[in-house]
Amino acid sequence: MAVRTILVSQPKPEGKKSPYFDLAEKYGLQIDFRAFIHVEGVPAQEFRKQKIDLSKHSAVILTSKTAIDHFFRIAEEMRFEVPDSMKYFCISEAVAYYLQKYVTYRKRKIFFGKQTIDDLVDILKKHKKETFLLPCTDILRDKIPMTLAENDINFSKAVLYRTVASDLSDLEDVYYDMLVFYSPGGIESLLKNFPNFKQNKTIIAAFGPTTANAIVKNNLRLDVHAPQPNAPSMTGAIENYVKEVNKVKR
């Protein structure tokens, strides 16, 4: 079946440049965007039940910009004044630079890895005297706390935000040829909003192994999967599929 309409379960890309925009123009597709999941902050009253004393921590491990936002949010709600002596250990340089939104950027107090916790742990091991706080989501991957524990890093895991399903009720009578997912949470949101969802001829595309597994586990058909050797990106995999089923000659 030819593909004409696609719904991507993410917010619309900012700016005018995106591989999705190029794909839509090249093949005459209607590509819409909608976040199937969103982040909500854990309120101070709920955070207190975790019995974590912010003042007992001398350093913070930050794995995302969202973690930064909610660390400073909860600090404000708890009326905790983050001391100038606090050290920040960021998963990447981009996350480190985002800190400028909240603190004066002093490189002697801000450290960052290349992109993964494995890169960052080498830096953390040089600061083992610190007591670390790990602000995170309720669905944090085990990889991060396990890596910290295996390297004897003294840390407290603080759940400051959670990922929840967005309200998609306005899409109930809207049909798309293809649905594109980037996380298991997107699949969960689809089925929570539409518990009687029948895939029928709808094409489902997934990025990453965990997303693909979530589709299969929920008895849905996985039609397009990335990354693949011939399509490292989601848009590349979609393009290959569209060219095949739409019989596009380029």
Descriptive report:
Helix content is 32%, strand content 21%. It is built from nine helices and eleven strands. The strands form two sheets. Strands 3-8-7-4-5-6 form a six-stranded mixed β-sheet. The protein has a five-stranded parallel β-sheet with strand order 2-1-9-10-11, sandwiched between helices. Strand 4 (59-62), helix 3 and strand 5 form a beta-alpha-beta unit. The two termini are 19 Å apart. The mean pLDDT is 93.
Question: Secondary-structure map with pairings?
Answer:
Layout: E1 5-8, H1 19-27, E2 30-33, E3 37-41, H2 44-48, E4 59-62, H3 65-77, E5 87-90, H4 93-98, E6 110-112, H5 117-124, E7 132-137, H6 143-150, E8 155-165, E9 178-181, H7 184-193, E10 203-207, H8 209-217, E11 224-226, H9 234-245
Parallel strand pairs: 1-2, 1-9, 4-5, 4-7, 5-6, 7-8, 9-10, 10-11
Antiparallel strand pairs: 3-8
Helix pairs in contact: 7-8
- The N- and C-terminal alpha carbons lie at a distance of 19 Å
What CATH architecture of the largest domain do you see?
Answer: 3-Layer(aba) Sandwich
* Portion of residues within helices: 25-40%
| Basic shape | elongated
- The CATH topology of the largest domain is what? Rossmann fold
* Separate helix tally: 9
- Helix-and-strand structural type: alpha/beta
Strand order of the largest sheet: 3-8-7-4-5-6
